[in-house]
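Weekend entry, working from home. Most of the wet-lab plans are on hold until the incubator is repaired, so I used the time to fold the two sequences that have been sitting in the queue since the last round of cloning. Logging both here for the record. First:
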Amino acid sequence: MLTHAPTGAPSDWITRWAHLVRPAGRVLDLACGSGRHARWFAQRGHAVVGVDRDAEAVGALPPPISGRVEDLERGPWPLADEAPFDAIVVANYLHRPLWASLAGALAPGGILLYETFASGNETVGKPSRPDFLLNPGELLEVARTHGLRVIGYEDGVLEVPRTAFIQRLCAVREVERTAGKGGPPAYRLPA
């Protein structure tokens, strides 16, 4: 059984893998809502950009978080003017046309931390529309398609705070290696 953080607290999945984010690195909290992850990363010294379409929620983000009001589902990728991110965090949000933009916005060594609802959730509540539910193995396929190395993945049922079907991914955009120099990077797995 997967565990889930209480409402308002950062996701256990996100905090579990946060040690992989470069110290003081740039973090994007996409569809940040009230900013539970943006706040958590900012408190740890990261430069954080929180993006959501809810102007009131973005307006309530405290400094030093940089908030941007953007409708992620209309028009071109609104963060094309931003430098690459050392981490992109997405929780409880799914808009498939963003996959390539998310992968492209990761800096070399950047971490994608993704957690959202999966197929099967329609049997226990909302969201229930297929547009908002990941297909079996979909996050793994996204990582493969966009050249990301999977560090951690889960697909299962949460019981707390309510029953939900969830997929979770931690993947990295690997740093290019020149021929004959070093092996693959080692990623410390959390205890």
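Second, folded right after the first finished:
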Amino acid sequence: MKLAFIGISTRIPPWLDQLGQDYKKKISYWIDTNIQYFNSPSHDRDAAQKKIESESEILLDALSQDDFVILCDERGSSLSSEEFAKKLEKILAGGKKRIVLIIGGAYGVNDSVKKRADLKLCLSEFTMTHHLAMAVALEQTYRAMTILKGTSYHNG
């Protein structure tokens, strides 16, 4: 079983790169973990729909048929950390080769990516940048793993 975080970004801020490496190391203690960013094709700022379509195509190309896909989406299910841990436990036991968490670009993803997702997960009712969403997804996945493994990180 592998775990992959994939996102769209033309420039990874240093703070996110460091945070990503820290959480990758922590999560990899239990499950082989990878973080990958794809460059957003260059479009005018006014070409939001073109951006959504081209970025979505890139994300779909990164997926395998046997992946369990979690799309972080503002219209997805809201879960507590404990509920996410239970959901993750079921996914891990489900026999898929890889779990992929997707963080779309600044304008989101198209319907094809939404349809491909096995789970749509709302990280917060707040609007946040895709960089911050990646940080939240990494931290909550680590928290879920510590809940499942019974370590002292989660104080809930």
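Plan for Monday: verify the second prediction. The longest strand covers residues 67-78.
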